[in-house]
Amino acid sequence: MIRSATPADVPAIHQMIRELADYEKALDEARATEEQLHLALFGPEPKVFAHMAEDDGGEVVGFALWFLSFSTWTGTHGVYLEDLYVRPQHRGGGHGKALLAELARICVERGYERFEWSVLDWNEPSINFYRSIGAVPCDEWIRYRLSGDALERFGPVGASN
Fold first, then answer.
1. What is the arithmetic mean of pLDDT over 5-34?
2. Which residues are catalytic?
């Protein structure tokens, strides 16, 4: 079963984010707290959303965390999937596919024209799964990130253009 996350899901989301970061060999970079997640998902003006996957017994086995994007070319919003995770012992049961299908349904229902995400280039099981559902890589685009010290140097607080 796929359902929208509730405030009671924040501890499970936080734990699965840490499990995903560990799988991606970047656990030390996963610094978000439960409090930060709660505020982002359920604060006064949420900008981030999550859906939960449960098994037949009602146990949370996975999640998808996403936010809206916008395309100036299509003039419409889209969904950007930040995290998709299904606990290893529950993989192969259709939970990941069901989470993706729910987000695709939201896109179609709301008239969003794009559903996008990133995947690590070494994550062959995920790449093969995404290709199996018809997703295509955007090889001509290179993703860039400005963070940490470089971000602070480039955009110092108090500076103006």
1. 97
2. 130
